[in-house]
Amino acid sequence: xxxxxxxxxxxxxxxxxxxxxxxxxxxxxxxxxxxxxxxxxxxxxxxxxxxxxxxxxxxxxxxxxxxxxxxxxxxxxxxxxxxxxxxxxxxxxxxxxxxxxxxxxxxxxxxxxxxxxxxxxxxxxxxxxxxxxxxxxxxxxxxxxxxxxxxxxxxxxxxxxxxxxxxxxxxxxxxxxxxxxxxxxxxxxxxxxxxxxxxxxxxxxxxxxxxxxxxxxxxxxxxxxxxxxxxxxxxxxxxxxxxxxxxxxxxxxxxxxxxxxxxxxxxxxxxxxxxxxxxxxxxxxxxxxxxxxxxxxxxxxxxxxxxxxxxxxxxxxxxxxxxxxxxxxxxxxxxxxxxxxxxxxxxxxxxxxxxxxxxxxxxxxxxxxxxxxxxxxxxxxxxxxxxxxxxxxxxxxxxxxxxxxxxxxxxxxxxxxxxxxxxxxxxxxxxxxxxxxxxxxxxxxxxxxx
Amino acid sequence: xxxxxxxxxxxxxxxxxxxxxxxxxxxxxxxxxxxxxxxxxxxxxxxxxxxxxxxxxxxxxxxxxxxxxxxxxxxxxxxxxxxxxxxxxxxxxxxxxxxxxxxxxxxxxxxxxxxxxxxxxxxxxxxxxxxxxxxxxxxxxxxxxxxxxxxxxxxxxxxxxxxxxxxxxxxxxxxxxxxxxxxxxxxxxxxxxxxxxxxxxxxxxxxxxxxx
Lengths: 450, 212
Known about the structure:
The complex is a heterodimer.
Chain A: H1 3-26, H2 28-34, H3 36-54, H4 57-65, H5 77-82, H6 85-103, H7 113-124, E1 132-138, E2 158-164, H8 179-188, H9 191-201, H10 213-232, H11 235-246, H12 250-266, H13 272-283, H14 297-310, H15 319-333, E3 340-342, H16 346-355, E4 358-359, E5 362-363, H17 375-380, E6 383-385, H18 388-413, H19 418-447
Parallel strand pairs in A: 1-2
Antiparallel strand pairs in A: 3-6, 4-5
Helix pairs in contact in A: 1-3, 1-6, 1-11, 1-18, 1-19, 2-3, 3-6, 9-14, 10-12, 10-14, 11-12, 12-13, 12-14, 15-18, 18-19
Chain B: H1 5-12, E1 22-24, H2 29-32, E2 38-41, E3 45-49, H3 63-73, E4 74-78, E5 85-87, E6 92-96, E7 100-102, E8 107-113, H4 115-118, E9 122-123, E10 130-131, E11 136-137, E12 140-145, E13 151-153, E14 158-166, H5 197-211
């Protein structure tokens, strides 16, 4: 596996392990009341998962710090053993999934109220009514938890969104929450059928002349991804790559990633972190497994146009919002709340103060302005709230940029205390993002723009 | 020297990040700025002490056990932006500012109540209104209602004001200070008294004396 992708996968996994320990500790009192042995067992499980990762420290360090970028490192006997690391990581991930089930049954671990604010922004803030949005916590990797519900419980106006428990307090893990609603939207509006007809009838007819059932399923999948990318922005790209790497479907990654990257370009979402990840995915592709003809650019363009038709610009995550997220990610690096920002730059306010002849808090006695003119630069400092989607996109950028540093620190500087330290950092990041989402809502209420 | 409104504004837009005051969000600066202060707002999360099964905190327990006791007896309450937190007469609750505040190293600050709320009997801190140079995070309110009517407190309401004092740059910024306990918190933080090193010294001395 390509180095950048491996780094991404390792970080996603260690993040989940650290979150497992964090949640176990948060629910510690309740668990101890129910069964002290169960609590001990969960802590032991978490410690063993950490050890499984730390045992691979030297191999991981070798892989992550090697200069080779390709996937052909197996020619060296030392790296041959290390090539088994991705599958080992996936094994660790599978092992993590089952104990996380226990946590879903605890009273102390509930869906954060900010989750609804995020969903309202992503799905309801544009006047579209979908019915009730209910969020339920599920075990990690258990996406089938609510499959097979009776017709009374799977009516179109009951939308059950599933949230993996390990992502409970992590807004960056909430992007998959929209999936049920998007599925519903795709089928209820007939958009999926229309797309299929267009692809079959249209320019891409030749390309899918030998279309199999699996191609249709993939078309549906790509359409779903295109819609979510349009609503949620580039954060969705990061989330899909992370989840696909963790579940080990590299073949799926190859097909989906390039289609999503096409969508990023289509919507002018540009950033070096997106490009680096895309290039890593490209380099990890095997020539003979490259995109099959159906996913040629003209077909992808049809899919993204269909998504644009279904999700109007007013509802979509815009290029401007992405630019704001990029700026916000810099503030997150400094640990500053990102609920809002001023429309005027600091230098514009400085210039205004100079223009009014204020210096060191005093108005020049010769100045023509009045002391009450201070209200003008003050009003320039007025801040406007950011949407939860902007905050989540900023958070993903921040995480992607910080992850290599946190990973290096865990593997090299403080292995004994590394997972605890990582847990603290993740906890701080979660609090900052949650508080930003919450404060932006208070801000909107006070502005009367909810 | 206390900073006036223009000096505070100059510091908010200072090109040097080390000298810059950060107060965010600033919803309505024209309303929030006074001659020497900036009004701050109430956040959404509160903490109240659950007393039904608490007699006292045994300060001689080890810090981990005390931390567990504190967590067990502090009830966190989060209110929606349109819902009030009702503080009853004689009650005490912890809360925090809606704003994130960063104080540069050459300034210190004081958090004070607003007279509008003081006249209704709301005290916003018991004794800890001083903000160290280098502090960053949400500021904690120690709310108490000394009137005889319940006070409904809505998030986003301006209940306090902060003023800044010019000093000489400190070598011990709050976030780097040994034993600093509340730096960088973005929401309400309860007391971490059990981390004060005095208790471990008293515990050790007590243990030693019991052997003699």
